[in-house]
Amino acid sequence: MTPGFNKKTVAAAAGTLLLAAGLLYFYFLNPADDKNLYISCTFKNLTGWDCPGCGGQRALHRLLHFDFLGAFRYNALFVILSPYALILTYYTARQYFTGKNFPKKYWFSGKMVIFFLLLLLVFMVVRNLPYFPFTLLSTDN
Fold this sequence. Notes:
Structural class: mainly alpha
Oligomer: single chain
Helix content: 55-70%
Radius of gyration: 18 Å
Order of helices and strands: HHHHHH
């Protein structure tokens, strides 16, 4: 390594470049357009059901264009949990660079992991119910 560059700096630069490239890809190429290269959901292909992440790529595309309602229609849970994901990313980066631990609060505890797993399971079941208003959560609407 050259002087002034350590492994953390290189890792942060590489991670930032990958994140920027991914966000630019999602910004300019719409996942709803079949001509663009995007990964389809294996769970949905096998079962016909929406998983908790179905519509997430399209929701991210809409969020990057500040179309919050459009993003919400593709995946409501993705939109609702986006601020939490940003906060979690901030604390992860802070811990990586400064060594400061996560706040010792409920929002970053093992209980929260269990809560999110249950939330994902409930969201998956509810969004696949064939009754109004649950059909609004489906990606097939």
